[in-house]
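Appendix B. Raw example, untouched.
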Amino acid sequence: MAGPDPHQRVDVLGVGISIVDIERATAVVEGWIQDRERQYVCVTPVAGVMESQRDETLRKIHNESGLTVPDGMPMVWAGRYAGASSIGRVYGPEFMRVLCERASQKGWRCFFYGGGVATAPLLERTMCTRFPGLQSAGTFTPPFRELTPQEDAEVIAAIDASGANIVWVGLSTPKQERWMAAHIDRLTTPCVMLGVGAAFDVNSGLRREAPRWVGRVGLHWLFRLIQEPRRLWRRYLFDNPVFVAAILRRPPRLVK
């Protein structure tokens, strides 16, 4: 593939953000599926970077991913400041739509893990209707508690038996990143896991999607805050200023 090395990253406060845009990230995932590799992808905005400041294990999970893509313009601006001119926003809901359309053309099977009660089956129906030919490998909505070891083993067995090429994980950050890292090597069937959080609600129609211009100017966080103030106020009103202050002290830099 032409262009920059997708394995090169920008160090943003210790988190390696992959130098990709949505087209290149899609091509990388397609290559993994063709080569039958097991990989996981973190779709990471400011919230993921800030959680990683408080959790060294989470930072390691981001840095050991196949890709950690820039979900949000602050990650893109950080990359461009460091000299990665080709980096572009990889917005989770859009990334899901692009890959599901590609899956419908390539015959890839998609498994949907996560979301609220009944969200995964609704998402499955919505995406299969939107992209005729998309093959669902199944769905699973975990309860609001830790799975027992037996339940966890049954989920892994179900994903393995489904023949899934892509496993969509919608548990929110940092739960989805931890889940992917803990389970990717337990699967025997090669697949790509993608942690896309709110994309489950957006693409199933349960949550309004921000207009494109809102994302382009870096105000997606404000749109989300207006939608869910009680849940997200601390994330955005505390983490965002701290992120800016930290970036000024420790500017982003290119790394291998």
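End of appendix B.
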